[in-house]
Amino acid sequence: IMTEILMEQGITKVPVTYTNSDYGKGLAESFEAAFTAAGGTVTLNAAHEDGKADYSAEVGALAAAGGDRLVIAGYIDQGGGGVLRAALDAGAFDSFHFPDGMISVNLEDNFGSEIDGSTGQHPGTDSPGAAAVADMGKANGFDGTSPFAPESYDAAALLILAMQAAGSSASADLKDKVMEVANAPGEKIYPGELAKALKILADGGDVDYVGGSAVELIGPGESAGNYRQIEISGGKIATVRYR
Fold first, then answer.
1. For 95, which DSSP code?
2. What span, in angstroms and rounded, lies between the C-alpha atoms of 13 and 130?
3. Which of 3, 15, 46, 80 has a CB 3.0–4.6 Å from the CB of 67, allowing a cystine?
4. For the chain, what are the domain ranges?
């Protein structure tokens, strides 16, 4: 998805900085492979450590490598945010691309219009369930639009429903029920409807859990992915499209 977005915008050369963790390394390596296969060039693919006070050295190396847009595969409240601030202060880059760990209200609050025109993507859907999770968040004091908020809600809901379907909380019993409650046939279940779903299962019926992320499990229990493509416009995170 990240490669598609950049290529569609004519971005063919990028340096990449990633948080020095399994998440960051895996994301950076898979992106470089896809981007290179699509005809792009990764000018530098380098790790950064979280928790540092100064990222000028990292930014210097990235700037020397050059590129059309800096990809920051980190965390906005950790080293990713530090690299972004250092890059802006040094005038090294003015255009960025952000994977999921960088996208939150902190991106708007801390950088705003400084990063207008920058792009990114994170798991997300425009389904009715996503809107329901966002509303639940507003009512209960959490950000239901943040990356993985709907997915986290859905993961817990699926476990609860699988336990009900299995009549057991033992993993050996419930593991075979997850696919059943997640997919058709059955009555579609959205966020806030767990009590309804539990009753249907208790009465011997079937449910098709849609949840906040339009859940559809495929293969060995993997989720068919949906992504929200974003752009920073007027200092705010704006939806471009869903993929």
1. -
2. 34
3. 15
4. 2-124+226-242, 128-223
84 touches 56 (CB < 8 A) = no
Structure tokens at 25: 């390394």
Query: Sign (positive/negative) of CA torsion 37, 101, 74, 49?
Result: negative
Rounded to a whole number, what is the largest CA-CA distance in the chain?
65
What would the two tokens of residue 149 be?
Answer: 């908020």
User: What integer pLDDT is reported at residue 20 of this predicted model?
Assistant: 98
* Bond prior to 185 in cis (omega within 30° of 0): yes
How high is the mean pLDDT of the chain? 93
Residue 50: closest CA among 71, 23, 77: 77
Residue in the block written with tokens 């058709």: 184
Quick count: other Cβ atoms within 10 Å of Cβ 176? 11
Structure tokens at 172: 């050996």
Q: Are 182 and 158 in contact (CB under 8 A)?
A: yes
Structure confidence by residue, pLDDT tens digits, 69-97:
999 999 999 999 999 999 999 999 999 99
Residues linked to residue 229 through DSSP beta bridges, in sequence order: 121, 241
Rounded Cα–Cα distance for residues 172 and 169 (Å): 9
> Which H or E run contains 35?
helix 22-37
Question: What's the CATH number for 2-124+226-242?
Answer: 3.40.50.2300
pTM across the whole model: 0.76
| Residues with Cβ within 8 Å of residue 45, at least 6 apart in sequence | 15, 16, 18, 28, 29, 32
